[in-house]
Design brief:
- This protein is an alpha+beta fold and 269 residues long.
- It has 2 domains: 2-86, Phosphorylase Kinase, domain 1 (2-Layer Sandwich), CATH 3.30.200; 91-265, Aminoglycoside 3'-phosphotransferase, Chain: A, domain 2, CATH 3.90.1200.
- It is 38% helix and 20% strand.
- The chain contains 9 helices and 10 strands.
C-alpha cells in the first residue's frame, strides 16, 4: 500500500486508519503529503468494483450539483485500481435521523429529493454500463440482476419477476445516471444552525445507466430517505424486490419486505 500511495500521491502520504469497506474494495483514511485528509479506495485491477467507473459517475453527479467528495486521483498503479477523494467532514444520516426533529429531517429529505431529480438529468446513451451503447432497459436490468443476485431460489425468483414484469421495462424514458446504492448510510450530513444539511453522497461503486425511477425505488426502503415502500407502483415494486433478492440479510424486517413484495408481484419464494 505504501508503494501505491507514493505513486499516486507522492512521498509523505500515509495511512491513518482502516475504514469499513464493501463490495471487494479496501478503504483507508489517508493523510496526504501536505497534511490534507483523504479517503483512498483500492481494488485489484480488472476486479469488481470498477473504481474508475465510480470516479466518473461521481464527477458526473458533481457536474449537476450533487454534493460528492472531490476526486483527487483515479488511476491504475502496479496492478491496483486507486480512487482518491477528499475526506468530507460529517456524520452518517443513518446515525443522525433517528434523533433529528421533524424540521431537521424535512430539510435533509428535501435535499435528498433534489439529488434524485438532479441525477435524472444526467442522460446516458444506453442502459447498462456507463458509457455503453445499444443496451435495452430490460436487457440491462436482467444482466445486472444476474451479476448481483445469488444463485438458487433468489435468482429463480428474480428471473421469474423479470419474465412476468418485463413489459413494464421498455426503455421509453431513456437511461440516466443511477447511483445504485442510495441508502441512509451512504449519506453524510453536517450541522447547520439548529438542524442538519446534506454534506455528501458517498459510494458510487454501484453506479450504472438505468431507469430514472431506480434510485427513488430503492431509497424508499430505508428509514430517513425520501418516499415509502408502501407508495411503490409496480415498476418500483419490481426494483425493490430485486434489491431484496441481492442480499442474504437474515433480519426479520428484510424477510418481511421480501415476502410482501413477492406476494404482491405473484412470485413464489
Amino acid at each position: 500500500m505504501d508503494e501505491v500511495l507514493a505513486a499516486v500521491l507522492g512521498p509523505g502520504a500515509r495511512t491513518t486508519a482502516a475504514l469499513p469497506g464493501a463490495g471487494g474494495a479496501s478503504v483507508r483514511a489517508v493523510m496526504g503529503p501536505r497534511g490534507e485528509p483523504l479517503v483512498v479506495k483500492t481494488a485489484p485491477a480488472g476486479a469488481a468494483p470498477d473504481l474508475l467507473r465510480a470516479a466518473r459517475a461521481q464527477e458526473s453527479a458533481r457536474a449537476v450539483g450533487v454534493p460528492v467528495p472531490r476526486t483527487v486521483a483515479a488511476r491504475v498503479v502496479v496492478g491496483v485500481q486507486v480512487h482518491v477523494t477528499e475526506r468530507v467532514a460529517g456524520r452518517r444520516w443513518c446515525d443522525v435521523h433517528p434523533h433529528a426533529g421533524d424540521a431537521a429531517r424535512g430539510a435533509v429529505l428535501r435535499e435528498l429529493a433534489s439529488v434524485l431529480v438532479r441525477l435524472r438529468t444526467v442522460e446516458q446513451p444506453a442502459f447498462g454500463e456507463l458509457g455503453a451503447r445499444g443496451g435495452s432497459e430490460l436487457g440491462a436490468l436482467r444482466a445486472r440482476t444476474r451479476a448481483r443476485v445469488p444463485a438458487g431460489w433468489r435468482s429463480d425468483a428474480a428471473e421469474l419477476v423479470l419474465d412476468r414484469s418485463g413489459p413494464l421495462f421498455d426503455g421509453a424514458a431513456g437511461a440516466v445516471l443511477v447511483h445504485g446504492d442510495l441508502h441512509h448510510a451512504n449519506v453524510l450530513v453536517r450541522p447547520a444552525g439548529p438542524g442538519w444539511r446534506l454534506a455528501a453522497v458517498l459510494d458510487w461503486d454501484s453506479a450504472w445507466a438505468g431507469p430514472a425511477d431506480a434510485d427513488a425505488a430503492r431509497a424508499a426502503f430505508w428509514d430517513g430517505m425520501p418516499g415509502s415502500p408502501g407508495d411503490a407502483d409496480e415498476r418500483a415494486a419490481v426494483q425493490q424486490l430485486l434489491w431484496c433478492l441481492e442480499y442474504r440479510d437474515a433480519g426479520g424486517r428484510h424477510r418481511a419486505d421480501t415476502a410482501r413484495l413477492a406476494a404482491r408481484l405473484g412470485v413464489p419464494l
